[in-house]
Amino acid sequence: MPDRLVVLYRGNRPPATALIERLADTVYATEEELPYLLPGADALLAWVTITPAIREAWPDNPDKAPRWVHAASAGVDSFLFPALVEDPGVVLTNARGVYDQPTAEYVLGLILALAKDFPGTWEHQQRREWRPRPSDSITGRTALVWGTGPIGRAVARLLRAAGMLVRGAGRTARAVDPDFGMIHGPTTLPSALAEADYVVLAAPLTQDTRGMVDASVLAAMKPGARLINVGRGGLVDEQALVDHLAAGRLAGAALDVFGQEPLPTRSPLWDMPGVMISPHTAGETTSEREALIEVFLDNLTRHIEGRPLRNVVDKRRGYVVDVTHPA
Length: 327
What we know:
- It contains eleven helices and 13 strands.
- Helix content is 30%, strand content 16%.
- The strands form two sheets. It has an eight-stranded mixed β-sheet with strand order 8-9-7-6-10-11-12-13, with helices on both faces. A five-stranded parallel β-sheet has the order 2-1-3-4-5, with no helix packed on it.
């Protein structure tokens, strides 16, 4: 049993607290309480993951830092600070697998909403206007999924099932891939961008991917294409995106994540034609909390029994390396 497990929460505690408490000596900490409760803990369950609190509360003395940190999320960018990354004795795990299919469904919904202009239909309904008009078809359209991890693969499979031509983009090119057909590497990325009707961002936020969609990438996209971001806001240069949308070079965008969250009310993205905004909810479902705690409880049991943990993050890369489909 861990000497002490700290659970970082905000608002509501995670489900199954009674079971957690039977397995570990458990204390609960808000972000304000974390600096006082984290030192000396054996393990940390970060039920809140998009926060500077973990970095700020991390003990200066490595001997006082937890040996295992579990993030109740797929993204771990909030955890990639030097003291945690550079300590070889700290194992970081995440909730890989929980968000794959829900996010894929969300992406398909966004593509359909953009192609069929559901927002426009809703506006006409609100004004009681009967305005028949044609819409785009997604069958045969090309989607470039940038990010070849499990979420990107789930997106690719669902878009292919819907009749789209799907390609991937990642660190390593692959001529043949079971989910993407083929994967473009850095050298062929410009040509892939020029052919894609939809560019879907599903990559983790790391030092290598931060700001990867800049003005040059947006300029390389096919005129009239649409950008969908369900990865992290930091992947995109938002000002460059605003400029390209305002110039009419892109037909629109569906954005679930932003560099600053909540998205400031002053952001021009709120009012731009063809732009759909959602509050970082692409992977959220009514059963999300139970799925997240199931992954953690499995790892907690493994931790107690001394067995290998699931979803161990490569802290240098910033994600779990898939040995079957290495990125």
